[in-house]
Inverse folding.
């Protein structure tokens, strides 16, 4: 095989070597190349690999060649790929390897560990590594704080979340929209409107405004928490802030109305959607039809069904026809 000079540009090296790695999950191709990659080329290549198996393969090959020190960037890139593949045990093994080899873990490393543990539903592992982080004296940054707040929130540990939030704010941390989204979702799922007001006040003090995702998350959370009266209130607050709803927002609100059998409110929402030109999708249409079927609203259901038939991309599906059949069966039965 013809060797590739290490002083050639990274794009040429990557273009040459990457297809071979993609073809064979083996170190043979790499070992046949008599001129190994430079550090810069290795970084380019490891960032280009698409699967965690190939990333880990190349990482181990580079490490075994002992071409240059294995810096933190190689570990972090590999761990990110493993996180995508939900391979927490491998992520943790690399973290321990870093400690054994004297490679200091940074905020990026810890946030990868936390989020990977969360994706694998290993919340206790995330908390365990957070304690390790504090023991090293490394101060969390915004990304790390948001990641671990999310873990605590998923465990329903409200006191711990607020304690961590207060500790971070005292250390000078300025939460971003993602962090406030975590807090808002947590309070929403517990049906705690006072908590939501606190979050909004904190956001206002930092000059941050709730966005569409924030409001959609809250409306959905309060609906699930069986606090239906709060959802429309949040929806109106959102509109007053000149934020237009999307399909997710409208679906979340409509689900709340459907669960509570608030037919008039749902139909009023439907007419607002029509008059404002807000977006519709299959889920929203079918929720409305199912609710009409439950409440025996034949005329209203027919209007919604005809609207679906007249749309360009949202023709009635099997769920739509089932809802209409249920309406007529109830009428005739």
């Amino acid at each position: 095989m013809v060797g590739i000079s290490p002083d050639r540009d990274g794009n040429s090296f990557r273009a040459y070597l990457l297809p071979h790695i993609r073809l064979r999950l083996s170190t043979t191709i790499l070992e046949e190349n008599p001129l190994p990659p430079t550090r810069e080329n290795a970084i380019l290549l490891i960032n280009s690999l698409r699967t965690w198996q190939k990333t880990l393969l190349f990482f181990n090959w580079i490490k075994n060649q002992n071409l240059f020190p294995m810096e933190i960037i190689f570990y972090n890139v590999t761990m990110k790929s493993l996180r995508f593949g939900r391979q927490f045990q491998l992520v943790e093994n690399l973290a321990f390897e870093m400690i054994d080899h004297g490679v200091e873990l940074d905020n990026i490393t810890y946030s990868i560990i936390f989020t990977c543990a969360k994706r694998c539903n290993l919340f206790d592992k995330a908390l365990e590594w957070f304690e390790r982080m504090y023991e090293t004296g490394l101060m969390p940054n915004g990304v790390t704080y948001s990641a671990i707040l999310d873990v605590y929130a998923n465990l329903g540990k409200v006191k711990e979340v607020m304690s961590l939030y207060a500790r971070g704010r005292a250390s000078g941390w300025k939460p971003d929209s993602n962090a406030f989204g975590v807090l808002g979702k947590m309070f929403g799922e517990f049906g705690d409107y006072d908590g939501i007001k606190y979050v909004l006040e904190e956001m206002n003090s930092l000059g941050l405004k709730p966005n569409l995702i924030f409001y959609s998350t809250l409306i959905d959370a309060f609906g699930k928490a069986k606090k239906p009266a709060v959802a429309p209130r949040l929806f109106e607050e959102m509109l007053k802030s000149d934020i237009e709803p999307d399909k997710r927002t409208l679906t979340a609100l409509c689900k709340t109305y459907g669960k509570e059998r608030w037919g008039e409110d749902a139909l009023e929402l439907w007419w607002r959607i029509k008059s404002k030109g807000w977006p519709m999708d299959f889920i929203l249409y079918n929720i409305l039809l199912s609710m009409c079927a439950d409440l025996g609203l034949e005329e209203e259901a027919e209007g919604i069904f005809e609207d679906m038939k007249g749309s360009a991309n949202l023709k009635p599906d099997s769920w739509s026809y089932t809802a209409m059949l249920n309406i007529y069966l109830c009428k005739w039965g």
